[in-house]
Structure formats: C-alpha cells, structure tokens
Amino acid sequence: MRFLGQRRSYWRLLIRGAVLLMVTLGIYRFWLATDVRRFLWSNTEIAGETLEYTGTALELLLGFLVALALLIPVYAGFFLAALDLGILGKLSGVVGFAALGVLGQYAIYRARRYRLTRTIYRGLRFHQEGSAWGFAFRAILWWVVTALTFGLAYPFQLASLERYKMRHTFYGDLGGRFEASAFVLLLRRFPMWLLLFAPLAVAVSGFGGTVDWKALADTLAQGGDDVMGKIEGGNPGLGGTIVFAMLMTGTRIGFAALLYPAFQAVILRWWSSGLRFGDIEMQSRLRMRNVYGAYARFFGYALLFSIVMGIAGMIAVTLAGAAANFGKADTAGQIAATLLLVAGYVVTALGYSTIYRATVLLSLWQLGMESLQLSGLSALEKVKATGRPSSALGEGLADALNVGSY
Amino acid sequence: MADPIEPPLAAKSGAGIYFDGVTSARRDVIVELAPGGLQVSGGDGRALTTWSYDEIEGLAAPDNILRLGRRGSAALERLEIRDPDFAAAIDARAEYVDRTGSLERRQRLSVIRWSVGATVSLLVVAWFGVPAIATRVTPLLPTGIELKLGDAVNMQVRAMLDTRKKGAAFDCGTAAPEIPGRAALDKLVRRLEAAAALPLALRTNVVRRTEANALALPGGQLYVFEGLIAKAENADEVAGVIAHEIGHVAHRDGTRAVLEGGGLSFLFGMLLGDFVGGGAVVFAAKTVLQSSYTREAESAADAYATDLLNKTGGDAHSLANILGRIGGATEPGMKILLNHPETKARVAAINNATAINARSPFLDTGEWTALKKICAGP
Known about the structure:
The structure holds two protein chains of two kinds.
Chain A: E1 2-3, H1 7-23, H2 29-42, E2 44-46, E3 49-50, E4 52-53, H3 57-83, H4 87-117, E5 119-121, E6 124-128, H5 132-148, H6 154-167, E7 169-171, E8 174-178, H7 182-210, H8 213-222, H9 227-234, H10 238-272, E9 275-277, E10 280-284, H11 288-326, H12 331-370, E11 372-375, H13 393-400
Chain B: E1 13-19, E2 27-34, E3 37-42, E4 47-51, E5 56-59, E6 66-70, E7 78-81, H1 84-93, H2 102-137, H3 143-161, H4 179-196, E8 203-207, E9 214-216, E10 221-225, H5 226-231, H6 235-251, H7 253-272, H8 277-290, H9 295-311, H10 317-326, H11 343-353, H12 365-372
Parallel strand pairs in B: 8-10
Antiparallel strand pairs in B: 1-2, 1-7, 2-3, 3-4, 5-6, 6-7, 9-10
Helix pairs in contact in B: 2-7, 3-8, 4-6, 4-12, 6-9, 6-10, 7-8, 9-11, 10-11
C-alpha cells in the first residue's frame, strides 16, 4: 500500500476550502468534503491500483436538504415540548436526547454505505448491506454498557460494532469480515485505562476513608445555616481530601491529553489488522512514535498560527483604540467592532480545524494506509461486480446532527 | 478540451490498463485513437471495446494517471493511461476529459457565485424578513403561549443575570428588614397595573444588580435592578421607569424580540450545522438582554408610560428626569431602558406630552424610605 498525495496540494485544497467556507457561511462544505475525499481516495494505492471516489457535492447537498426536511418538524416538536414546563417538558429533553442519539448512529451507518458505494477499485464498487436501525440500536446499547463499566467494555463495543459493519461490507461479491480480538485490545489498552482511572479511584477512596458518611448524612438532614461549616467541623480531614481529589482530577486530564495519540495508534493498528476481504488479510505495522510526530507537527503549526492571530488581534485592538480616541464610538463603531470579533472567532476556529486536518488527520490516513501489509491478493483477480449506489440521506443526516467524518 | 492544433507527436496508440467493470481482472491493453473513438484491444491483438470520444469522461485519479470511464454507463468500465503525451492526445479529442481542470474551475466558480448569492439572500432575510415576520406574528400569539415563552426565557435570563449564583437570595424584598420595601413596591405597581388593564398579571422583582436598569420579559415579568432604586431620587421616578417597562409588556416588545432571536438562530443554525433546540432559547434570551429595542419601540414605550402616568395622576416629568440622569451612564450591552444617542429627544418628547393634572405622589415619605431599603439584606 502506498500514499501518493503531496502534503502541499492538500494544504492548498484545505486553505482554499476554509476561505470559501467563510465566504459562503458553510455552504461550501459539501464541495470541500468531496474534494478532500477525492484527494485521499485517488492517492491511496493498493497493489498498484488507486481507489476512486465517485461521489459528488450535489448529492451531498441534496442529502442534507432531505435530512433537513425530515429533521425540522422533529426539532420544532422538541422546541414546543420544551416550552411546556410540565412533565412533558421535562421528559422531552431526555426523549429528545435518546432519539437523536439513535438517529445519529443510524446516520453514521447510512453515511458509511454512501461512502462505500462511491468507492471504486479496479472497476468494481464496494457496497454495504445490513439494517441501519439494527446497527443504531446495537450501538446505543453498547454505549450504555461502556458507560456503566467506566470504559472497560469499550474494546468489546468496538469489536462488536465493527464485526457488524464488516460482515455487511462487500467489495464486488467479495464479503468482508472483522477478525480482531477484543481481548487483545483490552490487554493493550489496560495500562492506559489504569493510568486514567487509578487517580479517580484513589480520589474516591480518599473520600471514603476520611469522611464520616453517617455524620455527613445527619448534618445534611438537619440542614440549617452554615451546613458547610458543620461538615467541615465533623470531618477535619475533608478540606485536604477535596484538594487531593482536585489534584487527582488534574493528573487524570493531563494523562488523558498525553495518552490520546497512543490510544489512537493502538486502536488504529488493532482495527486495521482485523480487516478481511475473502482471502485478503491485512496486518498493520503502525508505529506509535509516528502518531506522536503528527501531533507534534499540529502543535507546531498551531503555535505559529496563534502567534500570527495574536499579533493581528493586538493590531486590531490598537487601531480600534486609536479610532475611539480620534472620533466618537457610536453605533456604527460598535457594529464594526462586533463584526470584527465574530470574524476573528471564525478565522481562529477554521484555522485550527484546517491545521488539524492537514497534520493529524492526513497523517493518520497516510500512516494507517502505508503501515498496512496485505496478503492473499491473488483473490483480486476474480471478484465479480455487485451492488448499487445508495442515496446520500445518511450523509445529510450525519451532517445535520454533527456526527459526520471525512 | 478540444484543441484545434493536433498534438505534434500525434501518438496514435499507447499502452493502457483496462478494467471491464464486470470482474476485477486487470488487463494490459493497447489503446488506439481510431476515427470513431478509442479502440481498446488486448495484448493478443483481439479487439475488446470501442468508446466514442463524446462518451468518454475523465475521473478522479492521482496527478500522473488519466483515468477514463464512459458517461452514463451502469458498468464501471475503467481505462487508465499513464503516458502523459498519449493522455494529452486523448484529452485533445474528448470533450468531457478535463485534465487541465479548466472545466472544473468554471463549474466551481459558478458554485461559489451561487452560494455567495445564497449567503446574501440569507442575510437579507435575517435583516429584514425575520423581523417583519416576528412583527406580524407577535400580535396573533395567544396570551397562554406568551406566558409559557416568558417562563422559558425567564429561567435563562435569571441564570444570566444572577452571575454569583445566589438563587432565591438574588431577589430583594424577601428578608425581614426588606419586607416593608416590598410592600411599598407592590403598592406602586398595583396603582399602575390597575390603570394599565393588561391581559396578563405583572410580576415585578427587584434584583441585586448594580446597573441602573430595568427590563421586561414576555409574559409580564419585570426586573428592576438595585442600582436603579439607588439612583432614583423619588418614588415617581421608579414609577416612571416601571410604567415604561409596562409599555414594553403591553406592546409585546419582549415577545417579538424572542421570536426574532429564535427565528435567527434557527435560520443560521440550519446552515452552520448547529441544531441544538435549546440554543434558540439561549440566543433569544441574550437578544432580550443585550440588544436594545428599536428607537420606535422605545419611543412607543415612553409614550405609553407618559399616558399611563397622566391617567393615574403621576408625574411624567420624573420619567424624563431619571432618563436624563442615567441616560449616558448605563453599562455597555445593557441598553434595554435607554438607547443613549436619542435620550435628549426622548426626554423632550416626554416633557411635551406630560399633562397638567391633579397629581398625587405614588408613595409617602415613609414608604419611599422603605423602598430605598428593599435590598438592604437581612
């Protein structure tokens, strides 16, 4: 497997896209997404042949409009229900959250189908069968299980959902499978999980050791003034414990930030080593330090960008101050300042997201592809064409619900 | 792109890779530029297929490969040419092969033009359309809906005003030393409310905020800030400001602002992909808090207040007085009561409309002293 794309062309594509996104208030995103996919697909070479992306921006736009037509009545209903302050209003938040969660997973599965059926390799398309609703309910159940087990079940969730996706994925008539073991991922991920949850566990047990729970419950039951003071008096060590717990939470956030690239590398390597199409097997040799390298590049560029934005901001503030001294700060001036602030915010947000796409996301794609070793490629000689292109509704829903990718 | 000049090399044939779209088998082929189209034949010289020039289209591929397909064909036949000269020769003959990207650039430009047009039309709708719709819809809204809307907005507004999270203690007039002040406020509001004859009941609260300000929410909830009571020199000035806010309630200005804010956030949320239902309420509440009403709405509320004060035997000059005193001194972003460039004109208008009538003060000296202490604390 090779990746042929030039970083420079990708940067150019993304920067031009970011400018156009700004000018068109985001309507350009369908064209940008199509360009990005064309670039990534076209430059990914498997066994001497590159992939081809045949989706069009117009399809994405249409899918989004159809999704809006479906979602607007739903949202309007939730909005009206939320205005009702009775039991219905309280329930509408929970019901809405759950419904949108299921719909989001449904959209993810449908969007995957769209992308697969727009992926052509050696004159045949990929396709995906299976029920999107079935996938959505499975995914929600797994999220609940993962949450209840403090993330320990996450490898099993990934493996199960991936098995569902892959056994319904086909290249022509060649069926896919997913064969990575969740236990392997659990073992590889366990040290990280421990690093993240040990501080939390220590903090919680710290509370358990120092706090006299019965006295605390009594104090709270009595109520009255200065509850905190009474609690403090009944539990002399409480203040220290709270500080300790905060330190532990800080440690945890620090660990999480430092470990995130390693986590991503482990998952990516495990996942891509589990992909199978008929006799074709994949083995990933992804190195963790390369993923850290990608993040280092991101922070380098982000720092540079922050400095530039900081200088631009300072110049703007100085100019505004001079203008305020010179003339009078009237309504027009206020509007101009507000517009400038909004523009600054948009440029900053788009800038960071562009840098992230051009460094981390591109590198993950490239590293993920280049580290793959394929075996059993002789199966590629006799695959037959099946499958039809699917609609872009899933992509539209995923876009409207903010669960899209690439 | 059709090029009138034949390519100099005039490579009439070249090597290619062919996929027939039925199986994934890869075939090395010879491609010939025949008069009727591209003739594809296998290594053994047997003809495989012929594609006429007007049905050939160029497809997404890496920079150094020309990938061709047939337009409108259900099968995904593909032909790949890697020799740049031969690729140029095909490009010159086939209309829908666009290796230089000029065709695509032109399409892209038209997309950009259309979406800039859409953006402009959206801004026009946001600037003129949404306020116009809100203005027309507001009078049609039943009072019940207005009350519910008011409750939803009230929660948000309280959360935003009560920055120190005091909760119930954020309201003045609840502790024992404050209760006489609360009674004085109630007396003052009752007199105005009786004359106003609104379709809904007013709820007036004094809250612990230092700005000299007051605001009216949809559904008749009024907030008077502690800072305004502190700046007022007599009870009639407080009554004047409350009468002005009653004017906003009677004209449903707050409701209109909420509809406008909700409409705007819906409109832009749709495009920018932010689809949080609750976001509309937050946005609307911010609109009420931060942006002023239009000059017309403020003048109309002034006129209403003057009229109300005249009717109840109050002194409308006192509204003009407090307006003139605190006009320039409100916090930035807190201009519900006052929109300062027009303060002078508003003061003059109120003074002109003040009737010579039999006046009686809203509160006696003892009550006024009590009202001054409404936020004294326990």
